[in-house]
Amino acid sequence: MNKVSTDVLVIGAGSAGLSAYRSAKEHTNKVLLIEAGHYGTTCARVGCMPSKLLIAAAEAAHSVHTANRFGINTQAPIIDGQAVMHRVRSERDRFVGFVIDAVEDIDPQDRLIGHAQFINDHQVQVADHTLIEAKRVVIATGSRPSYPEAFNNFGERLIVNDEVFDWQDLPESVAVFGPGVIGLELGQALHRLGVRVKLFGVGGAIGPLSDPVLKDYAATTFAEEFFVDADAQVTNMRQVGDKAQFTYTDGHGQQHSEQFDYVLAATGRKPNVDKLALTNTSLELDERGVPIADEYTMQCGDSNIFIAGDASNMVPLLHEATDQGTIAGHNAGRYPDVRNGLRRAPIAAVFSDPQIAMVGESYQQVSKRFGDCGCYEIGEVSFENQGRSRVMLKNKGMLRVYAEQGSGLFLGAEMIGPAAEHIAHLLAWAVQNKMTVPQMLEMPFYHPVIEEGVRTALRNVNAKLKFGPDIIRHCIECGPGA
User: Record-annotated residues binding NAD(+) (predicted)?
Assistant: First the structure.
């Protein structure tokens, strides 16, 4: 067996791992990068990029279906499933190619292929060919889809989102389990591309929303377009021939048994740490077997081991995974000089229609932190009558903003509505800069734009904070919500 020594070992060549490798290299030349599978990040290969390609095709089809609302009469679009999926795969491969090129630019002496397992805190074995003595280690092994054991009853009819993007053609029907980010995006997109879709969940959750007002609004809105049961009762799950079959009870108490070409399990993701033999280390693990780490340093306890990305107990999005990798890499490179890294304001978006966005502290976090003390206020705006939204016939949605009573500090927001991905950035910048609501209201708002709805929500909460006049109910130029 080959024996190698290094200053920093990075396990995993995804978004977090590549960031960790580059950052560690700023402090030492002795850095090794291990990858067990294919090069190419989760985002590029099976996540954010291919899903947006499918969503873009769905939006194109939907715009033809709804053109008559503008007085433009068209024929129903003919959807070529093979052509749709060919573009998804080819563009996906293009994005993956960029990542592979970046990895191949790394010195071959710094790269190893194989599954890694810890022997102890400083020794890691790679497959059956290399034993590495590492002064410091960064775990960046990513995550994989997970689902309840009962779903295996669907046999080969069960798929996860990773497999959708390898389809050669669109199926006739898909049952989606899990109305979170992945399930909601893919379920709606497939529906708009002519696939018969039913979306099921447990507990009433829709996307990442925690605000009960917005959860109810979202459930109603999406159910108006296609079948959504966010709190389903499902039994008798099995494969029948080349179909997946199960029974569910609808909102009226009626039972239905249906068959689908596929069941898409979008019920969550699981950190890829279970095969690392972490029990051979001194690390403290949580109930899922994931190392417990400091969110500002990414250090696991006071050890020489750091963790970043989806493998961590923080389950970050891509931009956060990259930040975590940067922090972990720098700290592993200059260890024992461990420093706090920059953690940006939380921001998340769901590319459904209407879009969903979360910024800063969620309703759940704010209400838990402040309780019933009356120390925070909520402002809101509906986009149903907001000027620019109605012009574009994108007038579905609501924004709720949270602010601290007394200081006027803007805490966060949840939203379902048009341009949520863009509005989220404005609000995240405000959170990161610790702006107050009065300060935010001093910022310019052009007319007519959807972002004027943000000003309406801020005026609404500002009045409750007792900092200024009541909300302006009507805009002289264009009506309410400006």
Answer: 178-185, 268
Name the CATH topology of 347-464: Enolase-like; domain 1 (3.30.390)
Overall fold of domain 2-143+270-334 = FAD/NAD(P)-binding domain (3.50.50)
Could you list the residues known to form a binding site, using ranges.
52, 141-143, 178-185, 268, 310
User: Class assignment of domain 149-267?
Assistant: alpha beta
Residue 256 annotated as catalytic: no
Amino acid, single-letter form, for residue 321: A
Using CA atoms, how far apart are residues 402 and 424, in angstroms rounded to an integer? 14
Q: What is the pTM of this model?
A: 0.92
Catalytic residue among 129, 256, 447, 474: 447
Q: Do 2-143+270-334 and 347-464 agree at the fold level?
A: no
Q: Which helix (H) or strand (E) holds 366?
A: helix 363-370
- Name the token pair of 198: 């039913």
Helix axes 212-225, 181-192, angle to 10 degrees: 20
Task: Summarize the chain as % helix, strand, coil (round to 5).
Answer: 35, 25, 40
The full set of domain ranges for the chain reads 2-143+270-334, 149-267, 347-464
Euclidean distance between CA atoms 146 and 310, whole angstroms: 13
Residue positions forming the annotated binding site for NAD(+): 178-185, 268
Residues 6+ apart with CB under 8 A from 283: 121, 291, 292, 300, 301, 303, 305
Question: What are the tokens at 267?
Answer: 């019920």
pLDDT tens-digit series, residues 157-204: 999 988 998 999 999 999 999 999 999 999 999 999 999 999 999 888
User: What residues in the chain have per-residue pLDDT under 70?
Assistant: 38-47, 315-318, 468-482
